[in-house]
Amino acid sequence: MFNRKLIKGILASVASLILCSCNKELSAPPRNEVVDINAVTSQSKAQIVLNGAYFRLANANSSNFTNWSFHEVTGSVFTGYLGYGFGVMQDESNSNQASTFSQGIWDDCYKLVEATNGTISGITALADNAFTGNRKNEMLGEARFLRAYTNYRLLSYFAQWYDISSKYGILIRDAPSTLSNIVKARSDVRSSYDFIITDCDFAIANAPSSNPNYYATKWAAMALKMRVLMSRGQQGDYAQVITLAENIKQSNIYALENNLKDIFYTKGLASSEVILGIKPNTGQETFYYNLSYQYYPGGSGLWVAKQALKDLLQNDPRGSWMVGPASRYNAYSPNTYYFTKYIAYATVPTQVSETAYAFRLSEVYLLEAEATIRSGGSLSTAKALIKTVMAKAGVTDFSAVDNASTADALLLQNYDEISRNLVGEDGADWMAMLRFPLATVTQLKPTITSTAQYILPIPSSEYQSNPTIGPQNPGYSY
Asked: What digits encode the pLDDT tens for the residues 262-280?
């Protein structure tokens, strides 16, 4: 028998998740009051509810400071490029039974799912004539992008995404939670992909073509669908990835930054490469709250670069600014260095250093290159895409890419560039590693010897409130 008191407590917490802001700017301080979705009676109030969903995407706390650490750190810890600065976590060796990240990722994702479902429900119920032009469908497109984004994140970390026939998919919640629907079983993987892609397609068709780059657009939805299709990897998926990439590139809205370092050190969201970023709150940098908190006040060593990242960037111009001096806590975490991709060592955090990135054009190029290789396309075409991205990072020696004469060799070169370019952002390096066969994954990260280690266990708290969710992920105990 499930605990009704616990479920009521969950529902009360869920009701407080949809927080509002005074205007469309995420950086404006919200009033932090609960929004009743049944009170959505106008376009302006619908926008308030949608802002609450963006508030959840940014994982903003009660002081409105964004915190994207679970996005920026988790994947790169699993790949072995980043680590904990004050000791070695079991996550670094892919021993995930008591993962540091599991509960936090699960909670963050389902808070956003709840916020988006409330948003979708409230906006859908409002009459079409309450909106100007096509704004109702645009807002629904934004909300469904957010739901697709977080469900793909759940799929990537808690479901057997790599096996389309698996029964171990995600727990799909497609409506606001109530006592009658909170107890629910997880879906299979095929159904999980279908649900996510349906949301992506709606967002591509309806989300705005133009929006500030800390809000969703049809282009961000295309980039998200590229990630989803690369993970699914079924017949025809790679061709779709290539088409989506070309659509984004030919929109002429985005352009690769001429100097990769400028995105992280000087431009932030002003960069034309950023498709979707996470905007920090005004004044956040004075509290060193988000990624810059790792450097409080300029060098705390909370999350650090490991030797594997330093080795990967050897003889690469990025090594001079992405990996700093040896961590002062090497006695606890041997062979670690300050991770300086977002902020130079011993400097003061800024709004730019507090900015996080969900989608950049570099990833679009590299996913297109990978899809081209995996679909049996031209290796020369793929090489040109990889080298274009590398050149924007200041690389002039392309011999390793040029000398990759087989598809397998070039896939490894593409993976290395994904890792160099996107480490510490939103898990692209981790997912790219896992798209190789297990034997290759084990060569890249010897502590991974089973596909069970590709994903995390569902937190035990979920079984307490939702005992019908289904069996735990293989390889893990309750």
From this structure: 999 999 999 999 999 999 9
